[in-house]
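Worked problem 6 (solution included).
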Amino acid sequence: MDKSAGQKNATQYLYPPSDPFDQRMLDVGDGHKVYVEQCGRRDGIPVVVLHGGPGGGCSPAMRRYFDPEVYRVILFDQRGCGRSRPHASVENNTTWHLVSDIELIRETLGIDKWMVFGGSWGATLSLIYGITHPDRTAALILRGVFLMTQAELAWFYGGGASQFWPDLWERFADIIPKDEQDNFITAYHRRLFCGDMMIETRFARAWASWENALASIESNGAGGEGPAEYARAFARLENHYFHNAGFLDSDGWILDNVNRIANIPGIIVQGRFDMICPPTSAYGLSQKWDRGRLRLVGKAGHALSEAGISAELVRAMDGFAEIADELGL
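Solution. The predicted structure is:
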């Protein structure tokens, strides 16, 4: 990677903006419809993009990590997120519903096998999908790895990250009564699902602000709140998943099942100073996954938009394009 990456804007490494050639609302059952789009080359190498959160959504910038002359890029908003409906709904919304949705999208679009690209929670979901459907996964490209473990949740919501950001942590923690501060995920859950829109929105903003402020190494805590509607969906869905331990059967489920992706090649792009998903998870994954190549990016945090992170992700996708035939694509 160019040593000057840290001094450049991330967009300098990305492909030009592009518009989708296909947009649709796909009925996935259980009362949910998910927004799906395709861009790039219609007969190109298929890659599905899994956004973060849970509760985030796909954005036009996510199209730009792939050469539009080479890749057929599929993006979608997960249940309850972005343009998917019903908005902010947690009904019939679990990890396994999302894995099923990914498969339905693949089948609906007539794709036999594809690459899977995801960051943060999107990396979690990519790994779970790959473990569940290794025969449909040609390669995994992961950023800011989160393995959905209690240790990771304790780091971010139990005081670990607060050691570096005490001022911002105070804002997140102090709106919860002292007698409930032994478990912030549960305390926020009570308020995010209380049925009072004003209360839900207030606590959603606080939840989202804590995470947004720590995402980029460049922001120094100035992540901002974002629109209230987005914050409410993001916070409710993320808290719902974390409150239920990602709906996995056991703590450490991903690493316990990583043998199922042993033959799938992958690239792990990880910021050295990621405060949301510390590098220990990415490193641990790389140690147990022989074909997963770890690329630690110095002077980088968690955000997809950071220059060093973007440069490595584009490099990874350009590299996989050169060996698509070997991957059966």
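Discussion: The CA atoms of residues 36 and 76 lie 4 Å apart.
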